[in-house]
Amino acid sequence: MERAAQPGPALAMLLLAGLILAGWLAPRYVADPTTVDAPARYVVAAGLAVVAFLSFSTLNLAAYCLIVARKSEPTKRFITAIGNRAAIGAILGTLLGLRMATMMDGQPAGDPDAPATTFLDFESNLSNTITLATLTLVGTAWPYCWGPVRAAMTAVASTPPLKPYARVTGLVLGTVLLLSSHFLGLGVAMAVYRGVAHP
Fold first, then answer.
1. Residue 115 · residue 42 · CB < 8 Å
2. What are phi and psi of 106, to 5 degrees?
3. How far apart are the C-alpha atoms of 18 and 12, rounded to whole Å?
4. Which of 120, 148, 153, 159 could be disulfide-bonded to 173 (CB atoms 3.0-4.6 Å)?
5. In the 8-state DSSP scheme, what is residue 35?
6. What are phi and psi of 113, to 5 degrees?
7. How far apart are CA 95 and CA 126, in angstroms?
8. pTM attached to this predicted model
9. Nearest to 40 by CA among 25, 53, 55
10. Are the C-beta atoms of 33 and 48 separated by less than 8 Å?
11. Each residue of 94-121: pLDDT tens digit?
């Protein structure tokens, strides 16, 4: 779980490079992915759906762990890891938003008749990029969620009358929780995909 607290060097560099390139090459598409032309829009929609699925599933499982076994060490470490990654995402999202502000300043797309970027546009774009980057980083903690969920469910099963079968019961409960959370995450991902691919 210690590895979950910080993304690896390769992932960190990939995310940073991706955010810088996105803010430099396609700031308007980052601000509004629905403006991407087909067929590239379907690829963007699929990527955003994956981010939505992973982040929702991770946060949902974290909520379950907090409700069921908030004092257990695996839960504490898992929540710490999510918090660390969310903070990194907020920092990278802020950098991307500020980079987009410099790229989108003035008349967009070289059209002299188009309105200039306003402060409200800047605030909206900044908050959107912070949210997206934060959710992306939270989603990268998804591979580490099975351990805390299993520990939380085992803690529940360690109370009477399930105590004699705590290990097996915890495994079953954890599996059910994992599947149900991912089913809900799939619904969120499909909604995001439809919203971007078919605006």
1. no
2. 85, -155
3. 10
4. 153
5. G
6. -90, -10
7. 9
8. 0.79
9. 25
10. yes
11. 888 887 777 666 545 555 555 666 777 7
